Amino acid sequence: MLPAYLPNPIAALVGGGTPIDLGRNFTDGKRIFGDGKTYRGLIIGIFAGIGIGLVQIGVSGTYGWENLPQQTFMSITLLATGALLGDLCKSFFKRRLGKERGSKWPIADMYDLVAGALLMVLIFDPEWLFANMTLLIFVLILILTPILHRGINIIGYHFRVKEVPW
Ligand code: CTP
Ligand code: MG
Fold first, then answer.
1. From the CA of 37, how far away is ligand 1's center (Å)?
2. How far apart are CA 136 and CA 104, in angstroms?
3. CA–CA dist 120, 94 (Å, integer)
4. CA of 41 to the centre of ligand 1 (A)
5. How far, in Å, CA of 90 to CA of 118, rounded?
6. Quick check: helix, strand or coil at residue 19?
7. C-alpha to C-alpha distance for 166 and 24, rounded to whole angstroms
8. Which DSSP state fits 160?
9. CA 132 to CA 165: how far, in whole Å?
10. In 73-134, which residue ranges form alpha helices assigned H by DSSP?
């Protein structure tokens, strides 16, 4: 899941500049995605996820790393892209509910990237998903994601990368 987990914190580090919705509103008069979703965050975030995936591909099979799931260029690209597209979709619905950028939306804020990433591999590379996903791994993802999400965001808040600790 590293290629899915890395894009969000990297987007928070480097994000800013032109928003993906170019500042435009949806039919309800509210922003489509909001200022928290930028091209820079999206593109550099995806490259970062692919980058860590390439490292995983590089070390897999070498001593001590024999049990890593077999990543492919396809799987890492789908995981990284899906994570930030899931985040983008979440922001779309968050705006429709009238929630401000950066406001808290429990569950959705934490699992958006997991849903997006797994949905992308389910649609475009189901063979990879079913070869690597077990019930145990899925449950571990569900347990670890909120812990990692909260932990990383608190660290980001202390280093003033994020304005809020969630
Ligand atoms: N970010 C970005 N581009 C993205 C995703 C994130 O630039 N595609 C950056 C933004 O600076 C954003 C920060 O990462 O503020 C944290 O991301 P996130 O918590 O997902 O965004 P929020 O600001 O909380 O906005 P929202 O309410 O829409 O989730
Ligand atoms: Mg947020």
1. 5
2. 29
3. 21
4. 8
5. 15
6. strand
7. 26
8. T
9. 33
10. 73-96, 108-124, 126-132
Count of CB atoms situated within 10 Å of the CB of 106? 9
Q: What is the pLDDT of residues 66-84, one digit of tens each?
A: 877 889 999 999 999 999 9
Task: Work out the mean pLDDT of the chain and round it to a whole number.
Answer: 96
Could you give the angle at the alpha carbon of 42 between the alpha carbons of 39 and 44, nearest 5°?
A: 100
Residue 5 has pLDDT above 90, yes or no: yes
Burial 123-139 (b: 16+ CB within 10 A, else e): eebeebbeeebeeeeee
pTM: 0.96
Nearest Cα residue to atom 19 of ligand 1: 102
CA of 106 to the centre of ligand 2 (A): 10
Question: What values do phi and psi take at 106, rounded to 5?
Answer: -55, 155
